[in-house]
Write a structure and sequence with these properties.
amino-acid biosynthesis; Ntn_hydrolases_N; asparagine synthase (glutamine-hydrolyzing) activity
Amino acid sequence: MGFLLSRWNKSLRESPRLHCTMCGIWALFGSDDCLAVQCLSAMKIAHRGPDAFRFENVNGYTNCCFGFHRLAVVDQLFGMQPIRVKKYPYLWLCYNGEIYNHVKLQHHFEFEYQTKVDGEIILHLYDKGGIEQTVCMLDGVFAFILLDTANKKVFLGRDTYGVRPLFKAMTEDGFLAVCSEAKGLVNLKHSMTPFLKVEPFLPGHYEVLDLKPNGKVASVEMVKFHHCRDEPLHALYDSVEKLFPGFEIETVKSNLRILFDNAIKKRLMTHRRIGCLLSGGLDSSLVAATLLKQLKAAQVQYPLQTFAIGMEDSPDLLAARKVANHIGSEHHEVLFNSEEGIQALDEVIFSLETYDITTVRASVGMYLISKYIRKNTDSVVIFSGEGSDELTQGYIYFHKAPSPEKAEEESERLLKELYLFDVLRADRTTAAHGLELRVPFLDHRFSSYYLSLPPDMRIPKNGIEKHLLRETFEDSDLIPKEILWRPKEAFSDGITSVKNSWFRILQEYVEHQVDDTMMAAAAQKFPFNTPKTKEGYYYRQIFERHYPGRADWLTHYWMPRWINATDPSARTLTHYKSAAKA
């Protein structure tokens, strides 16, 4: 591994920088219980940072502490958290994420760094302009806990789309607990509250809390700092070449290519080996092809590893193989059978912390392929195509949108809820195996520009979803033409054949696990988000076993719009059925 890291440093031609890749953060303020006992809960997220752990009390506050799990990169000394620097001895920072523009901001504002950690920029920005300017200037994905003991403040923040997870629990008497995953909070003890309410921290928000002398806190304000369609403030300081004005189709296509290239390039920020998930669909294929091009430009010496998963004769495996051959990646195919998929459901639901039907279905393949990557390769930073369907109106039901404006509203709703569904799936299935996912389609600049385009440019055309995205790369030869125009597969069903889909395998299995009597009593047993299908009932049972009484983590099931759907699978849609027959 040492040889690989030295090659990587040399190939990037940059000064050594330590980047905090995927990790787990945890903090308590105002705990009434013994911290030595409470900190055992922090070990529930050890998978997020399997290489090192630190538990640190806050000076002067015996009932406040931080916990941190680290996926080691290079520097053992500066990589640990909470981050503290001599210039600001009153600031404590625990964060999970990557700040892609930290070097540009450091140079622009002439900050003097003490560490090699990208997150140090948060301390300098906060000292210079306060919390609001800080979060608006960060180009990246992040979840953080910032403590200012001089001004007696605690700040929580999370990136626009919630790519990095964050949960919190807070009681009426001011006990605050924060963690990357809910499982690190559910077993905490508090004298005033036998059942601690745990909830996800909203993406695109920061919260300000007062720190009292007894270590407890009081919420002052919760602020939404960025909407997905607004150009981010940090755009003023990036080095993307100037975009052309206007909405002429060739102009738009050129701008999209520039921004997508840049979204991939900035995400090369790591000293660990990069790999890419490749389903053979449009989104992952564009990511893999552009990534390989950027790695070559950076003179990285190792081949890009791409990973596909499926059962025998799956459309995804065949399509991914075509793309891998076209771009020249070192391709890995992972085969699994129906029994292995079903056996993984319990682990998957525990990792996900949700019982949403389509999220669980789609997570099994991603969970199993992440397990393979961790066990059989040295790729740690994994690129993927998440976010594209929501951004570019890729779901099949968008063909049914009553107007371009309604399709635009739906796209923004889906992006706002990503943290409950696809982004949650992407984070938990990879983090469960100590991997860190990067999602260039959710780049701030790329996504805000795409959402600024006229609504009628973004809708499906000629019976093909994501038409604009496909058209943008029509003349690039990045990926084979049949892949560029390949219709979307029904959720996770590309991993199996149309004749024996994962959807059908699951229906046949749960039919023997949940009987009609159980379904008749479903509303009584599960009054909130009552499952309407046997598959939904089965997932809910598993969830309640792991997280009893926590059903409100999922506000609603993911379901397609504008049709009378009872199941989220695209296999139930007329458009998909007719396409499958063609």
